[in-house]
Amino acid sequence: MHDYPTPGALPVATVSDAMDRFGVADGIRPLWPGATLSGPAFTVWTRPGDNKGLHAAFETIRRGEVLVVNGGGDTSRALIGELVVQKARALRVGGIVLDGAARDVAELAALGVPVFARAVTPAGPWKNGPYRIGEPIAVGGVPAAPGDWVLGDDDGVAVVPRARIDEVVEGARGLIAGEAERRAANQRLVPRG
């Protein structure tokens, strides 16, 4: 099992750079400023606008895992709200990433569980299914399989394949060191004239 970096330890943008700028979930944003997450993916694939699979996921998800949901990119119905996130908080879930919508944004921020989604809508979900748990999915156009590293910050969400975690972490740390050197050089610049 990999040691997943702590939330906020590595910027999403830098991790994406370390993957040749691949792996960023398109259109998935934090629902409140400063939200960060990092952990292994726990995947759910659900019918658009239906959250029955999310409730089922809470029966087996483990502490620190990130609930990653392919909701078909649907923005007409919120897959989660305050009550679902209260459950996630009680179970110490590492965060939630939705290729779909959420609601109750102020309450989610107050609960402190990092939630990333495509949109916000007040319309509630259906609870009929079908759904799949623990299968490879796509989120924001990026593949995500159980155990892949999912990380998020103010810039968005990235997914790192499990087999590449160590390589990508090392590459990101190298990029951060190089950026620090460039920042220091920028501070030494002297205006002309």
Q: Report the CATH topology name.
A: Glucose Oxidase, domain 1
Question: Which CATH top level class fits?
Answer: Alpha Beta
Number of separate structural domains: 1
CATH homologous superfamily classification = Ribonuclease E inhibitor RraA/RraA-like
Structural account:
The protein is α/β, with parallel strands linked by helices and 193 residues long. It has one domain (22-161): Ribonuclease E inhibitor RraA/RraA-like (Glucose Oxidase, domain 1, 3-Layer(bba) Sandwich), CATH 3.50.30.40. The chain has 5 helices and 11 strands, in the order αββαββαβαββββββα. The chain has helices at 12-18, 52-57, 82-90, 105-111, 165-187, and strands at residues 29-30, 37-46, 66-70, 78-80, 95-102, 115-120, 131-133, 137-139, 142-144, 149-153, 156-160. GO terms for molecular function: methyltransferase activity. Homotrimer.
List the helices and strands and how they pair.
Elements: H1 12-18, E1 29-30, E2 37-46, H2 52-57, E3 66-70, E4 78-80, H3 82-90, E5 95-102, H4 105-111, E6 115-120, E7 131-133, E8 137-139, E9 142-144, E10 149-153, E11 156-160, H5 165-187
Parallel strand pairs: 2-3, 3-5, 4-5, 5-6
Antiparallel strand pairs: 1-6, 2-7, 2-10, 8-9, 10-11
Helix pairs in contact: 1-5, 3-4
GO biological process, one term: methylation
EC number: 4.1.1.112, 4.1.3.17
Enzyme class: lyase
At a glance:
The protein has 193 residues and is of the alpha/beta class. The protein has helices spanning 12-18, 52-57, 82-90, 105-111, 165-187, and strands at 29-30, 37-46, 66-70, 78-80, 95-102, 115-120, 131-133, 137-139, 142-144, 149-153, 156-160.
